[in-house]
Amino acid sequence: MSAAILPVVLQANLVLALAVLAILALRRPVRERFGPLAAYALWLVAPICLLAGLLPVHAPPAVATPVVTLVGAGARGLAPVARQAASLTPWLVAVWACGVMITAALFAARQVQFVHALGRLTALESDPDILRGEHLGGGPMLLGAVRPRIVVPADFETRFAGPARRLVLEHERVHQARGDAAINGLVVGLRCLAWFNPLAHLGARRFRVDQEIACDAAVTTASPEDRRLYAELLLGAAMTPFSAPFGCHWPATGVHPLKERLMMLNVVSTTTARRRAGLVLVGAIALAGAGTVWAATPAPAKPSIIAPDWATKPTAQDLVRYYPAEAAKAKLPGRSTVSCDVKLDGHLENCTVLSESPTEAGFGEATLALTQYFQMKPASLDGKPTAGGKVTIPIVFQAGPDAPSQ
């Protein structure tokens, strides 16, 4: 089991790293040209590429682009490393699994600490769907991942009044409508699985920034006359050392993200046609990335069956029957080797001639015809079913059809 897990983990992290690098290079140009929503949607490329790498069907290598070659070479290059470290594989998988559990525990502890700092949560009298924290500075935010709720600080009604209150609540409702909190929960899960990959954590932080900018754009596009007030609300929000892992947090978690959000408020809104074109572009990039990964993912090698346990084999009479006619007349001996895939019932399929001697004497075709008489017992590869395995069969044709051998 561990031998199967390790290559998948390594390949998935290679794909994730390359996808994050591509997104980091494209996010700002896409945002400036097609709007914040397109830049936010661009992050879908990463999970789509990861899923493409798990597809069982592989495209021919001939269609590979330079990026395909890079991903394919990287994935193939990891295989010999994994084979050379076969004795270490169980330990490496154990270390990875421990890292996943520790990272998940740290995120859970941070969430519990964050919720505990809010104090007792009570529903607002004016809107029972909104919860108010017991302490100052805790929100506004969308808290949770499965059933997220809007949470506001204790002084919400005095600090936010009139249009300001409407704007900050609209910001959280946009998050809620888009399912951003659930998406953030999935991102946390991905970070746990890729805990040793620094690009996974860097990408997650940039993703949260693009998520907030896309939400800012949605609010200010709906209320363009309140753009200045919205910027003042962002400036007045207290920065926090960290946000809740499961949820969406209105205050900035650093100076740089705050500057990036404020700068985007000064950008003139893109047209509807350009926003739609941006989403189409993102879809094309996602399809191209998925196709690239799919084409580059190497097909799993079929296990070679070294000592096959045959249930049936061709008889001497079968070899006489298929002995090449011209070779039989000339009493010409020969040999041929074929390679075949093993079916579930032990019969052979997809047989190809690896070698024959002498060439063009018909021994290769004769051997292919004889493969129909081979059937392997169902468990002859280290006690495991032979289906999906590959077997190599040499056939020796003696000098004359009267005494053939196999």
Please characterize this protein's 3D structure.
This protein is an alpha+beta fold and 406 residues long. It folds into two domains: 2-296, no CATH class; 304-397, TolA/TonB C-terminal domain, CATH 3.30.2420.10. Helix content is 54%, strand content 13%. The strands form four sheets. Strands 1-2-4-3-5 form a five-stranded mixed beta sheet. A hairpin with a 6-residue loop joins strand 1 and strand 2 (130-132). It is elongated, with a radius of gyration of 31 Å.
Order of helices and strands: HHHHHEEEEHHHHHEHHEEHHEEHEEEE
- Largest β sheet strand count, sense and barrel closure: 5 strands, mixed
- Number of E-state strands: 13
Count the helices. How many? 15
List keywords for this structure.
406 residues, TolA/TonB C-terminal domain, 5-stranded mixed β-sheet, 13 strands, elongated, 4-stranded mixed β-sheet, alpha+beta, single chain
Short summary of the structure?
This protein is an alpha+beta fold and 406 residues long. It is built from 15 helices and 13 strands. The chain is elongated.
SSE blueprint:
Elements: H1 2-34, H2 36-41, H3 45-52, H4 66-84, H5 89-118, E1 122-123, E2 130-132, E3 141-143, E4 149-152, H6 156-159, H7 163-178, H8 180-193, H9 198-222, H10 227-236, E5 247-249, H11 255-265, H12 272-296, E6 304-305, E7 310-312, H13 316-322, H14 325-329, E8 334-342, E9 348-357, H15 363-370, E10 375-376, E11 379-381, E12 384-385, E13 390-397
Parallel strand pairs: 2-4, 6-13
Antiparallel strand pairs: 1-2, 3-4, 3-5, 7-10, 8-9, 8-13, 11-12
